[in-house]
Design a protein that fits this description.
Layout: E1 4-7, E2 11-15, E3 19-23, E4 27-35, E5 38-45, E6 51-55, H1 59-71, H2 78-88
Antiparallel strand pairs: 1-2, 2-3, 4-5, 5-6
Helix pairs in contact: 1-2
Length: 89
């Protein structure tokens, strides 16, 4: 699999198994997880059982993407909130 995530002005474009596009309003929650050499963005959708999980491999890229999703009004998990709050400290 080759996950893909592109944040457009009004929609997100992502690939799990095939390329899709959804409005930001369809995002139920954005989460963040980090492990050895991985920086994962996890996006849960309110209108689907599918969850997007993408490893950017770079904490700054992950932080910037989560910050942008937050600015679009997406609900963040505690871990995602902590990641962007850490940047402001």
């Amino acid at each position: 699999m080759k996950p893909k995530l592109i944040l457009h002005a009004d929609t997100i474009e992502f690939r799990l198994f095939r390329l899709r596009q959804k409005p930001y309003t369809s995002i139920a929650k954005v989460d963040y997880r980090s492990a050895w050499r991985t920086e994962n963005i996890i996006i849960e959708f309110s209108d689907s059982i599918n969850t997007f999980i993408g490893n950017t491999g770079d904490r700054d890229i992950t932080r910037n993407a989560i910050q942008r999703l937050n600015e679009k009004g997406c609900l963040l998990s505690d871990a995602a909130t902590a990641l962007i709050a850490y940047d402001r400290a």
